Amino acid sequence: GKSFRCSSYFRIHERSHTGEKPYECKQCGKVFIRSSSFRLHERTHTGEKPYECKLCGKAFSFSSSLREHEKIHTGNKPFECKRCGKAFLRSSQIRLHERTHTGEKPYQCKQCGKAFISS
């Protein structure tokens, strides 16, 4: 079986089996296994943005959003298309771009049947 350093980690793990989600957002009703996830979620309602870009001052609710934003200033585009060499800032951008090569159009109009690369 799996072992845990702290009893609190074990209790959180147990919830993955029981389905218990003791932290509920009073604003929207969304429920969470971990209090930390709940606290992060609360920022979507409060608008709290504790992470600020040192270069331009733009503020973000999540550290991951700040890290993503910082790529704009560095010019670093780590996602490169293997077919044509075009580079992108985000993985979502390259996935969209790759459809120009594959011809994949996963979004289809229910009215007329026309298909599109993005929604």
TrEMBL record:
<feature type="domain" description="C2H2-type">
    <location>
        <begin position="1"/>
        <end position="22"/>
    </location>
</feature>
<feature type="domain" description="C2H2-type">
    <location>
        <begin position="23"/>
        <end position="50"/>
    </location>
</feature>
<dbReference type="GO" id="GO:0003677">
    <property type="term" value="F:DNA binding"/>
</dbReference>
<keyword id="KW-0238">DNA-binding</keyword>
<comment type="similarity">
    <text>Belongs to the krueppel C2H2-type zinc-finger protein family.</text>
</comment>
<dbReference type="Pfam" id="PF00096">
    <property type="entry name" value="zf-C2H2"/>
</dbReference>
<keyword id="KW-0479">Metal-binding</keyword>
<keyword id="KW-0677">Repeat</keyword>
<feature type="domain" description="C2H2-type">
    <location>
        <begin position="79"/>
        <end position="106"/>
    </location>
</feature>
<keyword id="KW-0862">Zinc</keyword>
<keyword id="KW-0863">Zinc-finger</keyword>
<dbReference type="InterPro" id="IPR036236">
    <property type="entry name" value="Znf_C2H2_sf"/>
</dbReference>
<dbReference type="GO" id="GO:0008270">
    <property type="term" value="F:zinc ion binding"/>
</dbReference>
<dbReference type="InterPro" id="IPR013087">
    <property type="entry name" value="Znf_C2H2_type"/>
</dbReference>
<keyword id="KW-0805">Transcription regulation</keyword>
<keyword id="KW-0539">Nucleus</keyword>
<protein>
    <submittedName>
        <fullName>Zinc finger protein 14</fullName>
    </submittedName>
</protein>
<keyword id="KW-0804">Transcription</keyword>
<feature type="domain" description="C2H2-type">
    <location>
        <begin position="51"/>
        <end position="78"/>
    </location>
</feature>
